[in-house]
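Following up on my earlier thread - several people asked me to post the actual chain instead of describing it. Fair enough. Here it is, all 163 residues.
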Amino acid sequence: MSTYRFRNATVADLKLLGQWQRQPHVSAWWDSEEPYDAADLEDTRVARWIVLLDDQPFAYMQDYTVHGWDDHHFAHLPRGTRGIDQYIGVSDMLGKGHGPGFIAERMTTLFSDGAPMIATDPHPDNARAIAAYRKLGFIEIGPAQETAWGLILPMVAERPEDH
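Reply from S.P.:
Thanks for posting it. Predicted structure:
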């Protein structure tokens, strides 16, 4: 069984994140024109993580308060809801179940920390991401829509004991 570890992204990771964001499988869905900088890492609304497998960094994940922006498309969800975004930066780690694996681990932590829901917003054409989210229990809560952050498909997962 794989064991994923999450460590806070730091300024020392900015070069690695930039490299990952330039990978075609990432840049197709993730804005690589504006790579992260030190100010982004200081934004307390967003927890930014480097995901490691066997101590090797291979992915990036972030979770954030959906109520941190007045105009956020998930602001109508219950207080405490966390949004998530992520990508696998190392291409040879794709298609091996790592995405759902580490997302599930982070979801468990967020739910045990009290989040009533977890929201995500993949591009509607990102079939791989949507399939992974559905596998993890996410459901669509509306049609594709244009937002300040681009075209998204709104999806949520509820805390398991709330079903």
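The first strand starts at residue 4 and ends at 8. That should answer part of your original question.
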